[in-house]
Design goal:
The protein has 227 residues and is an alpha/beta fold. It has a single domain (2-221), classed as Rossmann fold. Helices cover 33% and strands 27% of the residues. It contains 7 helices and 10 strands. The strands form 2 sheets. It has a 6-stranded mixed β-sheet with strand order 6-7-8-3-9-10, sandwiched between helices. It has a 4-stranded antiparallel β-sheet with strand order 2-1-4-5, with helices on one face. Helix 4 runs antiparallel to helix 5 and helix 5 runs parallel beside helix 6. The chain is globular and about 55 Å long. The protein starts with a strand and ends in a 6-residue tail after the last strand. The model has no long low-confidence stretch (mean pLDDT 92).
């Protein structure tokens, strides 16, 4: 089953001689439970693509379907709710709330939605990511690798249809980077979680089930299972 699908995804900025084709007709499918990396040079369109997949920006043309729902048929408030419930985000800068402890950071998206926290599931995530002894710590008392693990736990907490990771190892040293990606692989398998990650790090990218290359706004390799 495809959990994510794009068709002829186009994003242009500017006009005439200033026209920039950030995305130029991207067709992409990701199956449920797959761990996919998207690689490309700076300016290749990978960040723009991730923003489109997460409904953070609207395309010039084309469609993005997540868990059977066409994102850009939704009104802004509907899209916000869908994003919160169905899409988990992991950012390079962690984006943790500094005044909340680890546990409250992890459960924040659930609380924002007014839902009851599944404590058993949260404990499973926390154990898998090795955070059990850190739940009362504030983010500034954690290492970069530990903060990124909290961000992964938060993304998993709502049981989203898909997790989008934006350069999740960009602020980490090489050993910690490989540890974090190893944990992402473990969690994707253990919780049958679909993950799409953009990275410029080829070594990190190769740890995914499938690596997709994008250049000049077009997918040039790995766009489907048969590439």
């Amino acid at each position: 089953m495809n959990i994510l699908e794009t068709k002829n995804l186009v994003k242009h900025y500017g006009q005439k001689e200033n026209l920039v084709k950030a995305l130029d007709g991207v067709d992409l499918t990701v199956k449920s439970g797959e761990f996919v990396s998207i690689v490309g040079t700076s300016g290749s369109g990978k960040s723009t693509l991730l923003h489109m997949l997460g409904g953070l920006d609207r395309p010039t043309e084309g469609s993005v379907k997540v868990d059977g729902k066409e994102l850009f048929t939704l009104k802004d408030d509907e899209l916000t709710i869908f994003r919160r419930r169905k899409i988990g985000f992991i950012f390079q800068s962690y984006n943790l709330v500094p005044v909340l402890n680890v546990y409250d950071n992890i459960t924040l998206p659930i609380e924002l939605d007014g839902n009851e926290v599944d404590k058993g599931f949260i404990n499973q995530i926390v154990d898998t990511l090795g955070l059990s002894s850190k739940l009362n710590n504030l983010p500034n008392n954690l290492s970069g690798g530990q903060q990124q693990r909290v961000a992964i736990a938060r993304a998993l907490s709502t049981k989203p249809a898909i997790i989008l990771a934006d350069e999740p190892t960009g602020n980490l040293d090489s050993k910690t980077s490989l540890d974090v990606i190893g944990l992402l692989k473990v969690t994707s398998k253990k919780f049958n979680q679909t993950i799409v990650m953009i990275t410029h790090n080829e070594e990190v990218a190769q740890m995914a089930d499938r690596s997709i290359r994008i250049e000049d706004g077009k997918i040039v390799g790995g766009g489907d299972k048969n590439d």
